[in-house]
Specification:
The complex is a heterodimer.
Chain A: H1 3-55, H2 61-83, H3 86-100, H4 103-165
Helix pairs in contact in A: 1-2, 1-3, 1-4, 2-3
Chain B: H1 3-29, E1 39-45, E2 64-73, E3 78-87, E4 106-112, E5 117-132, E6 135-138, E7 141-144, E8 151-159, E9 162-171, E10 180-191, E11 196-209
Antiparallel strand pairs in B: 1-2, 2-5, 3-4, 3-10, 5-8, 6-7, 8-9, 10-11
The chains are: A mainly alpha, B mainly beta.
Chain lengths: ~170, ~210
């Protein structure tokens, strides 16, 4: 075998061996990117659910604590990703997804409960207001009638006094 | 006062009392928006947890600490991100309304409730700081390079225990007599409508003098 043939065979073997490594490396990179994207999307959609619960008047501080833990893991994942440590990046992205799993459904439950409570409070407040307004109008009318009667009596007495003096 | 005037007075008082009685429902139906301004606060505290003692003259083999803090007054809970960047004064401008072009080294992500404050300690240090082009050799004659042409470079920045390789360098600042770098903290906020993070127009940072390193 000549030197040139040996060189060609070596080059071919080198290419053959390095190709799967490149493939594995590329797919591992894709896996990390996918894990990061999934964790980010999960965090954002969970936050939206928590926001809805908050706007409905629910106490979401417990849910925000869980979201914060997830966000901490995701930040760590991005830091390792930029440093090229894929293993840590995908581990922290996975931790983020694990931590916030179930928070969304909790937020929906809290939102529905807060809405129910809000509606019940609204009805109670409505009744209170209507009763309050009726009480105000009735009592003011009574006070007005009593006042008017006394006012007229006093004016009548004064006019009698004036006519008596004249 | 005649009876007609008393009648008007009674009517006004009755309407006022009726409004007070109806206020529980009015509070729900009519939005009483006080026109409060929505904003976020962003600041740094020194190692003593107050606004003094910020690291300034820094060197290698020593760790420094500050606290990064933010306050949410946006009317609802918010998703924030803080990017930590390191570079020279040409790369990082604290007064700019644009984010720095450098890639972030470290980042924080946090959800802050409305009217709540978040803070986190940040420790940082530097490794592999070197001075380039100190001596010039021309025709076998060695001479010292003028200080204005000397470049100081930093190869590693350590933030919260993680070592970040950087390619940061700065030349002598003749106005301030020193080699200056900057550690900046940029505030980003998740925009629910845009479904992405956007720069929140707030940058705080430290000017670091590395002359003694």
């Amino acid at each position: 075998m000549t030197w040139s043939k040996l060189l060609m065979v070596s080059a071919f073997l080198f290419f053959l061996l390095s190709f799967p490594t490149l493939l594995v490396s590329a797919s591992s990179e894709d896996m990390v990117t996918l894990a990061l994207t999934e964790a980010e999307e999960a965090l954002v959609s969970t936050h939206e659910a928590v926001l809805e619960a908050e706007q409905a008047g629910a106490n979401v501080s417990g849910l925000l604590d869980k979201l914060n833990l997830g966000a901490e893991y995701l930040a760590e994942a991005y830091v390792w990703y930029r440093l090229g440590v894929s293993e840590n990046a995908s581990r922290f992205a996975g931790l983020c997804s694990d931590v916030i799993g179930g928070v969304s459904s909790e937020a929906v439950e809290l939102r529905d409960e807060a809405k129910r409570l809000g509606e019940a409070n609204f009805v109670v407040n409505m009744i209170r207001s209507v009763v309050g307004v009726i009480v105000v109008f009735v009592s003011c009318s009574i006070v007005w009638l009593i006042f008017r009667r006394r006012y007229r009596r006093r004016v009548g007495l004064m006019s009698e006094v004036v006519s008596g003096e004249s | 006062m005649n009876l007609e005037e008393y009648r008007i007075l009674f009517l006004v008082v009755t309407l006022g009392l009726a409004l007070v009685a109806a206020s529980p429902v009015l509070g729900v139906v009519v939005p009483f928006d006080g026109g409060s301004e929505e904003f976020s606060e962003f600041w740094l505290l020194g190692p003593g947890h107050n606004a003094e003692g910020y690291p300034f003259s820094v060197g290698t083999d020593e760790m420094y600490s500050v606290f990064v803090c933010l306050g949410n007054h946006m009317g609802s809970s918010e998703y924030y991100m803080v990017y930590v960047k390191f570079g020279n004064s040409n790369q990082l401008d604290f007064d700019s309304s644009e984010p720095g072009s450098l890639l972030p080294l470290y980042e924080f992500r946090v959800f802050v409730s409305n009217e709540d404050v978040w803070e986190s300690p940040v420790t940082f240090g530097f490794q592999n700081v070197s001075v380039e082009d100190v001596v010039l050799s021309i025709d076998n004659v060695t001479m010292n390079v003028p200080i204005e042409d000397v470049v100081l470079s930093v190869d590693d920045v350590i933030i919260n225990g993680i070592v970040f390789p950087v390619d940061a360098s700065t030349s002598w600042d003749s106005e301030k007599s020193g080699f200056y770098f900057r550690l900046s903290f940029e505030l980003w906020r998740y925009d629910v409508a845009l479904k992405s993070f956007s720069f929140h127009n707030r940058v705080v940072g430290l000017q670091l003098n590395m002359t003694g390193s």
